[in-house]
Amino acid sequence: MPDLSQLTLKQITGALRKGDYSSRELAQAYLDRIELLEPQLNAFISIEPENVLEQADKADHQLAAWRKNAATNLQPLLGVPIAIKDVLCVSGLRCTAGSRILENFKPVYDATAAARLIAAGALVLGKTNTDEFAMGSSTENSAYGVTRNPWDPNRVPGGSSGGSAAAVAANMAPVALGTDTGGSVRLPASYCGVTGIKPTYGRVSRYGLIAFGSSLDVVGVLGQDVEDVSWIFNLIAGHDPLDSTSVDTPVPQFSFKQPPETILNSLRIGVPQEYFISGMQLEVEARVKEAINIMQDHGALIETISLPHTEYSVPVYYLIAPAEASANLARYDGIRYGPRVDADSIQAINSQTRGEKFGPEVKRRIMLGTYALSAGYYDAYYGQAQKVRTLIKNDFERAFEKVDIIAAPVAPSTAFKIGEHSDDPLSMYLEDIFTIPANLAGIPGLTIPAGLDQSRLPVGIQLMGAPFNEDLLFKVGNAFQAITQHHLEKPIEKTTR
Amino acid sequence: MSLTLEEVEYIAELARLSLRPEEKEIYRDQLSKILDYASRLGNLDTTLVPATFSVVPYHTALRPDHSRPGIGEKKLLLNAPLTEEGQFKVPPILD
């Protein structure tokens, strides 16, 4: 078995086809790695070793048959292990959304994104840890424990897809699905030094995704490099009749055969002045600017732009997202699924089940949202937020008339210490300041590693594009990864045996 | 802006969240701070600005009006805390 930290999807699928190792050996290697690191990192909520090995054996059977007769069609991801964030349903596999209120919930259908990867032959290693109902920026809000950052176990991996990011960074899975409502793929990707895409809203079906903010939620991908991430994106993206917000726009097939200079030459990159704020970590600013300079050295045209309503993104988001969440989480009532706290009346069952089984951040957001939507306050809060959202969306539209992509930091700092924001929810919300705008506007965003700070913590750079321009983001990101080595950096193993 | 304890209790009732007394005060404080921060949106003049309800081009997803099999009673009851004769069991709604 080769070193897992050197394996990309291309290498895995090539090796499996040649028979260098079997899918079972590969799955076992990842399971062994999970067993080694999980006590410290807690990246997974559920792991299914028997199921995975059973599926691996089936894959090996098909691979053997294919080696005898190459005329049969092989599924593109046959025998490849993947991890899935525990807000996406996989039939028969416990799905908790990081909450006690879904403690023993077993979905009876697959999320479309998961189904497409399973149909492509992928093996589901397990469900990764998440902030409860994807509400959080650190994966500290999970009812199943904190996930630790593989680069420094005293620090958060970011959130809410922290489990997925940590799993990929620590080579417990080659790729993982995540979700991004306010930055929940891009931020943990940045904190964990991996590549992550938040697609355009409507690009990937939300069927089977446990809903948080329905006008904001997007299924995304985390992986070791742009090529792997784009491959998974290609398999999951595309219209789904089961999701009425999924868009019927063709998904382009990417070609990475062009040399980096061709992509970067004359590429117009906008750098938004509002994303370089006082108080942000100096090394974050430095790494991001160095990355932009490298692109400029290879022919890109850099232009400072203004996205004037950026400062309103966080308040807009923390009215719209909780409002939508308050509606989406009304279904958790102790009646049809999940645990029930017994009481004499339906209302008491609802209130006590929810009061006891939801965590504090979830309750906070439900109440925020309920207030923002309540009679007498709707216009001033939710109504006003929806209008300011238009202003933020328009800022981007105007920018993309002048530039091809926007390059910006992902977060004001590198990974913070576990517990650092525990006493002040608002200070936690401000970590999302650079990621939220893309969700409000619905545009795609790609995090790629841009280097480390002095404490050897990863810094990511974010590339944002016009709606449905993931292919341009992937081409630029891939070009950057062809001329730099940041994405190849790995955390130093500190586990003792 | 500052929420009163009564307002917090009212919101909790609307949201069907039973809160312990000490929780009420903590949330009162936290929610007040967050709403205070969010109220800066009032500084913007949005009189001529339309609301964004959807970031994708608005479209109505239609399908042919043909019936299809559903998930089925058995599967739908699998996760229920309490069932009886193929139904979710609940306390009486009407007196």
Could you please describe the fold and organization of this structure?
The complex is a heterodimer of chains A (497) and B (95). With 497 residues, chain A is α/β, with parallel strands linked by helices. Chain A has a domain at 4-259 and 407-488: Amidase signature (AS) enzymes, CATH 3.90.1300. Chain A contains 16 helices and eleven strands. Chain A has helices at 9-18, 23-41, 49-68, 112-119, 162-169, 186-192, 226-236, 260-264, 282-297, 313-328, 346-357, 360-373, 379-402, 425-429, 436-441, 470-483; strands at residues 44-47, 81-85, 123-128, 175-180, 195-198, 218-223, 268-272, 301-305, 405-409, 445-452, 458-465. Chain A has an eleven-stranded mixed β-sheet, with helices on both faces. In chain A, helix 2 (23-41) packs antiparallel against helix 3 (49-68), helix 5 runs parallel beside helix 6 (186-192) and helix 10 (313-328) packs across helix 13 (379-402). The longest helix of chain A is centred in the last third of the chain and has 24 residues, at 379-402. The radius of gyration of chain A is 22 Å and the shape is globular. Chain A starts with 8 loop residues before the first helix and ends in a 14-residue tail after the last helix. In chain A, 60% of the residues are buried. The model of chain A has no long low-confidence stretch (mean pLDDT 95). Chain B is mainly α and 95 residues long. Chain B has a domain at 5-43: Glu-tRNAGln amidotransferase C subunit, N-terminal domain (Histone, subunit A), CATH 1.10.20. Chain B is built from three helices and two strands, in the order αααββ. The two termini of chain B are 41 Å apart. Chains A and B meet through helix 10, helix 11, helix 12, helix 13 and helix 14 of A and helix 1 and helix 2 of B.
